[in-house]
Amino acid sequence: MLKHSNKSLKPWHRSHKCPVPVLIVLLILIIVVLMLSFHNNGKQPSSSIGVMTQSSDPLVQFHPTIEFRNGTDVIWQIPDSPKAVLFLAHGCNGQAVNFWDRSPSCPDCVGLPEERLIVLHSLNRKFAVLTISSAGKCWSFGKESLIVKGIIQWWIEKNKLEKLPLVALGASSGGYFVSVLATNLRFSSVTLMIAEGLFHKIDIMKDYPPTLFVHMPKDQARKQRIAENMEILRNKGIDVAEVKCMEFPLSPYFLADRIPGVDKNISAKLFGLLRDKGFINVNGYMRNDGRATNWKKVLSESNIIFPDWDIFVHHIQEELNLAFAYHEMTSLQSEQIFNWFESHMT
């Protein structure tokens, strides 16, 4: 190997030479910085990573069938080659129409953002979806559970789906309802969302279905009751688990990503209004539950214009509640929910 004395190098080379190991370290650092920059620029809130946005998979479309039976609305859709049946129970003030987009086949449907995304996830995972409206503002737990049981059994037989596993997801009042319905109807597993269930009022047999609690720990009272009910179920030999839904920051395009009909321009303006009026903090987090603030009045007095105020205001309300993470329907944990369902199919 030839060796050159430093004295033979020109002054520029002596002052700027850089040992090879240092060059390698610098190159690695540059690559790491570029990777982190790319990752953060496209980063979603941790709660929403890997979930559908409002545009969804173009191969999955709404084509619901609507029927009025036993005094209530029954709306459903069956994908090609279904592998399971999912019954969805809404919360108080909800209806079956909340789960489906407005269309010629369902002109009264309203497609609330989280409900519709749960249905799209279901269809994408090859679950036939059945939704039923409660008779009153909230679900009742006596005669109504027997009526709904009959509707579900009729619908399954009508569509020749008897051989498929049956699962259920209920939110809030619907979660309480599903916890009771599971004592009368055989589910392979159930998910109770933002609800602890009515386990102190029902007889829990050893064949009670595996139960997943999807809840928002910011609601400390419900969090404690869920912990107690999980212990009760475990002591009965029932498989149980929980998914905790945490708050996350809003971003300028979040509402556009979640709500059909809200474009990026309107979404950014809404974000700016909420920030400027103090509804969200400097980091993008909601300061209070959307239900407890006057953001609707502020929005109505702004120069932001969008169609169908009466519909969109409920859509926006749901997403603000979701970000605050105290009590709201959520599709962000759909992958975990459907993994739970599929892991208990027999």
UniProtKB/TrEMBL annotation:
InterPro entries documented for this protein: AB_hydrolase_fold (IPR029058)
Record keywords: Membrane, Transmembrane, Transmembrane helix
Family annotation (SUPFAM superfamilies): alpha/beta-Hydrolases
Organism lineage: Eukaryota, Viridiplantae, Streptophyta, Embryophyta, Tracheophyta
Record-given protein name: Secretion-regulating guanine nucleotide exchange factor
Coiled-coil ranges from the UniProt annotation: none
Source domain of life: Eukaryota
Membrane spanning residue stretches: 20-38
